[in-house]
TrEMBL record:
GO MF assignments: ATP binding; GMP synthase activity
One CC-aspect GO term: cytosol
Function: Catalyzes the synthesis of GMP from XMP.
Catalytic activity entry: XMP + L-glutamine + ATP + H2O = GMP + L-glutamate + AMP + diphosphate + 2 H(+)
Species of the source: Pseudobacteriovorax antillogorgiicola
Protein name as catalogued: GMP synthase [glutamine-hydrolyzing]
Pathway given in the UniProt record: Purine metabolism; GMP biosynthesis; GMP from XMP (L-Gln route): step 1/1
Quaternary assembly: Homodimer.
Domain GMPS ATP-PPase span(s) in chain numbering: 2-193
Assigned keywords, A-Z: ATP-binding, Glutamine amidotransferase, GMP biosynthesis, Ligase, Nucleotide-binding, Purine biosynthesis
């Protein structure tokens, strides 16, 4: 595919030119974009000039952190994992405003990278897997445009970081990044993964975040995703996930009354995430996911399906 070849070539040139003889601290989330970006950086600059730093904020999907670690290391990239769940939970404690959550998480990420860069001298650049839609939606477009959501990885870097930015995908869309990823030999298993937002489950737990709620949501989400894969529906949608609502309702289990949280399932079709349609999943499938979640996840007794397009809704709930 000539298009992908050109994009790979241009991206490698951009990285070489931008970084020159510097060193890159690459922020990785385990998502498609930053994984493909770090692979390209290593290819452009050599492994000894790139260090991937993965901040585990405790808001990832179930077993995600170890999966990500294994996959990135298998690319031959230098990887540092910082386990920061407790620090992030603490910073987010008592916070329920969506933009506030995003800002806290963005700031904490920067602090982590700053601390790491201070302790390990010589980094000249901070690398990020930012995509074009992230740039647009965080900046707003045109005069008087409003910010829709502060994407965690955009917004410029505070002066104090003393590093320049290198964002090889700033002008690319996700399907282009996937093409590039395949071109540089990243496995389909990684490249075809659904997008996952940097702030992670923080924007899928509405209201205040607690460790208990994270666990409840991880369990529900895993049931949904596993079933999608099992029924060959995973690739039929752009993205699918569970959301934990701050709403308790009454139910009945056996002879007992329950009063527990509500979980929303969201599945959307899209080509770049800027607009989205509702995933047309069979009702029978949805009912079976709901049934398994309510039976197996302690804390959830009701499941609803989100049938809103983007616009007017966004894909994530916060
Ligand atoms: P929304 O919710 O704005 O999401 O319709 C559009 C796409 O972007 C993802 N998303 C993010 N990705 N950092 C990211 O890297 C973020 O802060 C972020 N917020 C949303 C979302 O999952 C969807 O694919």
């Amino acid at each position: 595919n000539w298009q992908a070849d050109d994009v790979v070539e241009a991206t490698l040139d951009y990285v070489k030119e931008t970084v020159a003889d510097g060193k890159v601290l690459m922020a990785v989330s385990g998502g498609v974009d930053s994984t493909v970006a770090v692979a390209l950086m290593s290819q452009a600059l050599g492994n000894d000039r790139v260090t991937a730093v993965f901040v585990d904020h405790g808001l990832l999907r179930k077993n995600e952190a170890s999966w990500v670690k294994e996959k990135i290391e298998s690319l031959g990239v230098n990887l540092v994992v910082l386990n920061r769940a407790q620090e992030f939970y603490q910073a987010l404690s008592g916070v329920s405003d969506p933009e506030q959550k995003r800002k806290i998480i963005g700031l904490k990420f920067i602090e982590e990278f700053e601390t790491y860069a201070k302790a390990n001298e010589g980094f000249t650049h901070l690398g990020q897997g930012t995509l074009y839609p992230d740039v647009i939606e965080s900046a707003g477009h045109g005069a008087g445009a409003k910010v829709i959501k502060s994407h965690h990885n955009v917004g410029g870097l505070p002066e104090r970081l003393h590093m320049a930015l290198v964002e090889p995908f700033r002008y690319l869309f996700k399907d282009e990044v996937r093409l590039v990823g395949r071109k540089v030999g990243i496995s389909n298993e990684l490249v075809d993964r659904h997008p996952f937002p940097g702030p992670g489950l923080a924007v899928r737990i509405l209201g205040e975040i607690t460790a208990d709620k994270v666990e409840i949501l991880q369990n529900a989400d895993q049931i949904f995703i596993d079933k999608l894969r099992e029924k060959d529906l995973y690739k039929e949608v752009w993205q699918a996930f569970a959301v934990l609502l701050p709403v308790k309702t009454v139910g009945v289990m056996g002879d007992n009354r329950t009063y527990q949280w509500t979980c929303a399932l969201r599945a959307v079709t899209a080509t770049d995430g800027m607009t989205a349609g509702v995933g047309d999943l069979p009702m029978e499938f949805l009912v079976s996911v709901s049934d398994e979640i309510v039976r197996k996840v302690d804390g959830i007794n009701r499941v609803v399906y989100d049938i809103t397009t983007k616009p007017p809704a966004t894909i994530e709930w916060e």
